[in-house]
Amino acid sequence: MHRNTRHAGFTLLELLVVMVIIGLLAGYVGPRFFSQIGKSEVKAARAQIDGLEKALDQYRLDNGRYPTTEEGLKALTERPSTATKWSGPYLKKAVPLDPWERPYIYKAPGEHGEYDLSSLGKDGQPGGTDEAADITNW
Hints:
Pfam families: N_methyl, T2SSG. The chain is mostly helical. It has one domain: 2-Layer Sandwich (Glycoprotein, Type 4 Pilin), CATH 3.30.700. About 40% of the residues lie in helices and about 5% in strands. The protein has one helix and three strands, in the order αβββ. The protein has one helix spanning about 10-65; strands at about 105, 115-120, 135. It has a three-stranded antiparallel β-sheet, covered by helices on one side. β1 and β2 (about 115-120) form a beta hairpin. The radius of gyration is 27 Å and the shape is elongated. The model has no long low-confidence stretch (mean pLDDT about 85).
């Protein structure tokens, strides 16, 4: 009595083909996915700058001026000694860091307006392109 028994399973060639297909998909989808993460950080920085601008405008309405560079964005959450009509805090929480965990750069008076508010982007260096570009209020 001789029976034909066949073992169930995948051959090495079938496994290699599947691995190649998975590798190709990862190579195609991976970069697109990670580029979206970078774009969302830039969008988050723009949204935070917009929110800080609104708080700075409210500070100006109350005090007749924007905080000085020395007072900084901290003036939005803590009363500076020079702000006699301060009605803050102007932010619900502490001044946020940019999406790359660095403080926003604030200068008043600014070179581009009454104040300059910016983030140096992903690379933390002035200038740059794409995700490494500076994000500014001007």
